[in-house]
Design brief:
There is one protein chain. The protein is an alpha/beta fold. Helix content is 45%, strand content 12%. The chain has 29 helices and 20 strands. The strands form 5 sheets. Strands 1, 14, 15, 16, 17, 18 and 19 form a 7-stranded mixed β-sheet that branches. Strands 6-5-9-10-4-11-20 form a 7-stranded mixed β-sheet, sandwiched between helices. A hairpin with a 2-residue loop joins strand 2 (14-15) and strand 3. Helix 6 (138-147) packs across helix 9, helix 8 (177-184) crosses helix 9 and helix 10 packs across helix 11 (229-238). The longest helix is centred in the middle third of the chain and has 22 residues, at 465-486. 40% of the residues are buried.
């Protein structure tokens, strides 16, 4: 299992046994970037929006952008704040920036950045010490429910806690919760009035005990920055430039905090993909990404569509899946173009029942391992965690090691904490430890210490807690082996320091087993081989997805699953739950037309063009079906002139004024030559549309409303020449 972009383990990246040193200068930072990634890296001024498809190297692009700005002397490291959504992603970003010679840049999660500011400014803004931060709010929610005389079982307690979190990140107060749920058509897990009552009591209990929760960190920071302009100004003097990763996942509360950090400035770069918005249940919304051009009309937009992760076969299926999508996010979908050599076709398999599906999957996994695919590079992904048990059993029966993702964090496991303490003690007093008397090599020292905690050269048989403990210790042994390869002179004390740093960043080493995970937990990761299982109606899309918007999010969730695969992809479903049961289940509707024998829309072929696109102050034009939408604000257009421009009359124009005037002069000459009014050549609106789109090919020009086949043949060469900066007069006007 690896992150979706290459993640180094240590401050200096090791490739093929060679230590990678920082680039020698700013220009060297740009080496190896593709044209679109280079556009991202060099776009250092004004608002920038990077639309980055799965596997297109977005982290590489934005870290090189920051590093290029720092190495070129344009950005001061301490003035840059890069924010993302997980500690792992932030740690990866910091590691890459160190490798590129930009180690002083702050890369944090929204919550981590806000908590640091809150801790620093609380005494000045409020007085006294910051209230204690709750580690887990579930216990307090349970107490609030009991105070309200509402009984909740464990699952209901978890659901109500999630609802409280959603309400807070959407800035919904307890009194408004029932009305907001009704208005938003949100599928509440229980009676909204009861949830609102528990929510209010929960907030009261926090006040009584002087504690705050995770969401309060953002809310309180927002409150201080709104009320104390002096503090807001101090933060804005500190941070001059902002980068936001996974921008499609920001909540309204996070966007509000970002706005306060920015003030009136536009020194902002956002990166996201609306087709990977899968966390709306937590308050995330792609609207901020989709509306970025409206809020920042002069933004530079760069599209990354070169997929370096997946084979053309996997990419083709991913594109075909999105080609059937509907809704606003679908209008902004990116058609990926694989940069890898061809691989095997995705496998689609139908089973009689769930146990047969699990056993068949385990057999295929075992066969892949036998051909040389590492177990750690294989994943079995499902819609909900409850589906994991049958696959755990099947893999255990097949003798295949596995790990559950989304369970207890690696460095919080008891055996890992105990192992860390033992290694720390050995590093401090190793000279007096008989275990290490005859052991010099670092990995051997680690094996010797961990052998006292249950590590053995061979794994224990079967599965369960004993096997889980061994896998954790074995991961620490492998980490030591990797560490000494990257840093041959490393000592046990160096390794302990590395472990402490990784624990602080929650950057866990990989347990060498097949990954079992939900599709949500798989976001941001990738494997050589991915098995997408249980793809039946009622599970994908999930039963409680009722609205069109919810259905489309389920489609995006499947898309995320497909794009986790580098080489091997298997999709499967079972016609019944139990052996001998009635075969009443149907494969997911999302595969209609994409599996043999199914009816549905025919997938378009993958594009063959090799590049992405760059836009400055204007959005790319594309053929649309159905209603014509304004490419700036998204409103449905009905006026013929607006439809020709594909934007509202009063929405910002990105027209090249000089080009428009040259086209008008050319049109006047053509009209005089043919003895017709100027509008018979092209109308003003058509000329405006041409000057906004700046077509470079006949196909692009033909796609503009008002051109048509006849005028393309008669005037096309002239117009394209003028758009290219040449003198096109008379080239085709005498036909």
């Amino acid at each position: 299992m690896t992150s979706a972009t290459y993640s180094p383990l240590f401050p200096q990246e090791s490739e093929g046994g060679q230590i990678v040193t920082p680039p020698r200068d700013a220009d060297a930072v740009l080496a190896g970037l593709d044209p679109e990634q280079r556009e991202v890296a060099t776009a250092l001024h004004g608002p920038v929006c990077v639309l980055a498809g799965a596997g297109t190297g977005k982290t590489r692009a934005i870290t090189h952008r920051i590093a290029y700005g720092v190495r070129a002397g344009i950005l001061q490291p301490g003035s840059v704040l890069a924010v993302t959504f997980t500690n792992r992603a932030a740690g990866e970003m910091r590691g890459r920036l160190r490798q590129l010679g930009a180690g002083g840049v702050q890369a944090r999660t929204f919550h981590s950045a806000a908590l640091r500011q809150l801790q620093f400014f609380w005494p000045r803004a409020v007085g006294g010490e910051l209230p204690r931060l709750l580690d887990r709010k579930v216990q307090l929610v349970a107490e609030a429910a009991a105070r309200c005389r509402i009984r909740l079982d464990r699952n209901e307690l978890r659901d109500v806690t999630s609802e409280i979190e959603w309400a807070k990140v959407t800035q919904t107060v307890p009194a408004d919760y029932p009305a907001i749920v009704a208005k938003s058509r949100r599928e509440a897990p229980r009676d909204p009035a009861e949830t609102g009552q528990i929510y209010a009591m929960y907030e009261q209990l926090k006040r009584e005990r002087s504690v705050i929760d995770f969401e309060d960190v953002l809310l309180l920071t927002v409150g201080i920055l709104q009320d104390r302009h002096d503090i807001a100004d101090q933060i804005r003097r500190q941070y001059q430039h902002f980068v936001v990763d996974e921008y499609q996942d920001v909540s309204p509360l996070q966007q509000r905090l970002l706005d306060l950090w920015l003030g009136e400035r536009e020194s902002l770069c956002v990166v996201g993909d609306a087709s990977q918005t899968i966390y709306s249940f937590t308050g995330a919304t792609p609207d901020h990404l989709l509306n970025f051009r409206t809020r920042h009309p002069n933004a530079t937009v760069v599209k990354l569509i070169r997929d370096y992760r997946s084979t053309p076969q996997v990419v083709h299926l991913a594109n075909a899946l999105l080609n059937q999508a509907r809704g606003r996010a679908a209008e902004h979908r990116l058609e990926l173009i694989s940069q890898r050599d061809p691989g095997p076709e995705p496998v689609r398999t139908e089973y009689a029942d769930e146990p047969a599906e699990a056993e068949g999957t385990a057999r295929r996994v075992r066969d892949l391992i036998a051909t040389g695919v590492p177990a750690g590079e294989i994943a079995v992904l499902f819609r909900i965690n409850a589906q994991s048990e049958v696959y755990e059993q099947a893999l255990a029966d097949a003798g295949v090691p596995y790990q559950l993702r989304g369970a207890e964090r690696f460095f919080e496991r008891q055996e890992v904490r105990e192992a860390g303490a033992a290694l720390r003690g050995a590093a401090r007093f190793g000279g007096n430890d008989a275990l290490l008397d005859d052991v010099v090599e670092l990995p051997s020292q680690v094996r010797a210490v961990l052998s006292t905690k249950g590590w053995t050269t061979e794994p224990p048989a079967g599965s369960g807690a004993v096997r889980d403990r061994w896998e954790s210790l074995a991961a620490l042994v492998r980490l030591a082996e990797d560490f000494v390869r990257a840093k041959p002179t490393a000592t046990l004390a160096d390794l302990v320091a590395e472990l402490d740093e990784r624990a602080a960043a929650q950057h866990a080493p990989t347990v060498q087993g097949v990954t079992l995970a939900s599709l949500h937990a798989a976001k941001g990761l990738e494997w050589d081989a991915v098995f997408l299982v249980g793809l039946t109606e009622g599970m994908m899309p999930i039963t409680y997805a009722k609205t069109d918007e919810q259905i489309e999010e389920e489609r995006r969730l499947l898309y995320v699953g497909v794009t986790r695969a580098r080489l091997h992809l298997t999709l499967s479903w079972a016609l019944s739950r139990s052996p001998g049961g009635r075969a009443s289940r149907r494969p997911t509707r999302f595969l209609n037309g994409l599996r043999p024998g199914s009816a549905g829309p025919v997938a378009r072929g993958a594009a063959v063009d090799g590049g992405g696109s760059v836009e400055r102050g204007g959005a790319a034009r594309r053929k649309r079906r159905g209603p014509v939408l304004c490419r700036v604000c998204g409103r449905t257009l009905t006026d013929a002139g607006e439809m020709k421009l594909t934007r509202c009359e009063d929405c910002p124009s990105d027209m090249d004024e000089g080009l428009y005037e040259r086209l008008r002069d050319w049109r006047a000459g053509q009209a005089e030559q043919i003895g017709q009014p100027a509008y018979c050549v092209f109308t003003d609106k058509t000329l405006m549309a041409i000057a906004e789109a700046v077509p470079g090919t006949s196909g692009e020009l033909a796609g503009i409303s008002g051109v048509g086949v006849r005028k393309l043949g008669r005037f096309g060469a002239d117009v394209l020449a003028i758009c290219a900066g040449e003198d096109g007069a008379g080239a085709s006007g005498d036909s």
